[in-house]
Amino acid sequence: MDRFRMLFQHLQSSSESVMNGICLLLAAVTVKMYSSFDFNCPCLARYNALYGLGLLLTPPLALFLCGLLVNRQSVVMVEEWRRPAGRRKKDLGIIRYMCSSVLQRALAAPMVWILLALLDGKCFVCAFSNSVDPEKFLDFANMTPSQVQLFLAKVPCKEDEMVKDSPARKAVSRYLRCLSQAIGWSITLLLIVVAFLARCLRPCFDQTIFLQRRYWSNYVDLEQKLFDETCCEHARDFAHRCVLHFFASMQSELRALGLRRDPAGGIPESQELPEPPEDLDGGSGKAHLRAISSREQVDHLLSTWYSSKPPLDLAASPRLWGPGLSHRAPIAAPGTKLCHQVDV
Hints:
Helices cover 61% and strands 0% of the residues. It contains twelve helices and no strands. Helix 2 (16-36) runs parallel beside helix 6 (108-120), helix 5 (92-106) packs across helix 10 and helix 7 crosses helix 9. By secondary structure, the protein is an all-alpha fold. It has helices at 2-11, 16-36, 48-70, 72-82, 92-106, 108-120, 122-128, 145-153, 167-201, 208-257, 287-290, 295-307. Among the domains are: 19-154 and 163-201, no CATH class; 206-255. Its main location: membrane. It is a multi-pass membrane protein. One of its GO terms (biological process) is sensory perception of taste. It is found in: Membrane. One of its GO terms (molecular function) is voltage-gated monoatomic ion channel activity.
């Protein structure tokens, strides 16, 4: 399970290559889903349009939501948009850039489905067979309006006895398929032209704003990811220290109750136990994590991180970073030694 969790976290990273790979994977899954789907139009005047349009639009909506779900940057974008301003002002340009990036990747798979459906034509024929103008076809001249509507509803079902081997059915079906494919190829050409113009014309303009927004959007994503990883590291270290201190404190309690026994006869010993070592943390040197040594401090740190993130200026005065960092060690004068002691 840990391997799957690590793989999922890696796929949720902000790397553009990984996210582009996920988009291509969703597009490939879309093609496979559509090719294996068994299309069955109800061939009823009241339900043809509902079924055809539902099949044309509902799977793209589900794929769009899946694209938003697997993209970590979508959650980071909403968090950046809704967070309190605090000591760091919000840049709407960065949020718009992140939104554009998320939407572009999330719309890839839905557009593949829609284009496949339009180029295939089955959904379009089912949805709009009742909307065809009968006057465009000479075969409907001898039919009553009710017969025409019934016949048009049966057009998607070529095996139905009413329309089987009927030239009128073939003509209507061919007309709707041509119209559907024309719309599909038009959308494809439009997307290609827009992508080509965006790719070719972008270097012609000033890239300063684009580079800045791209940099800070990546920064926001990486900052949140590193904060989560640091919180996990601190939680593990904090739990380890609490467990070690618990076992160390039990020595004095067992000694007070006289429950310590020798291995041979089980008689309580009068010898004193050694005191627990002062450094139960292994001397890893992570003072920035060990300084947070109580639940109140952890809750205050998390609350400060959400409500008032520090300004993006490492050279600023420490006072600008807010009271949430008051747990840090005091600044000593040159040549003075500080004695650090951590209590849990």
